[in-house]
Amino acid sequence: MAHAHKLEIFRGLVKFKSNTQKIWGVLIFLTIVTGIEVILGIYKPESLMGKVLGMKILNWIFIILTLVKAYYITWDFMHMRDETKALRRMVVWTAIFLICYLIFILLQEGGYIESVYSNGYVKKDF
Hints:
mainly alpha, two-stranded antiparallel sheet, two-stranded antiparallel ribbon, 4 strands, about 5% strand, elongated
């Protein structure tokens, strides 16, 4: 039995007439988000260099924009919107937990490496 996919994005704010239009709409959205990331990466505004929770604001923006892109790729191209609520929650919450855990590990290890370098305990340059 064929299952009809929803032809809308942004929770119904933008509606399309065909799957091809929807794919182009999502592609344009992802291109805009990627363009913002590239522009921020090239110019690195000084106002975004302040630190929040141990990381620069610019890095937090990159993480958030990357998560937005991953969400929309999963939601639209992997058809998660058409799955049951339990499966969506399992996939999303597992990914959120693993990403938060990765950020925690990177911040902890980065802080350790920084303290080793700043305290002068480096015996060998590796």
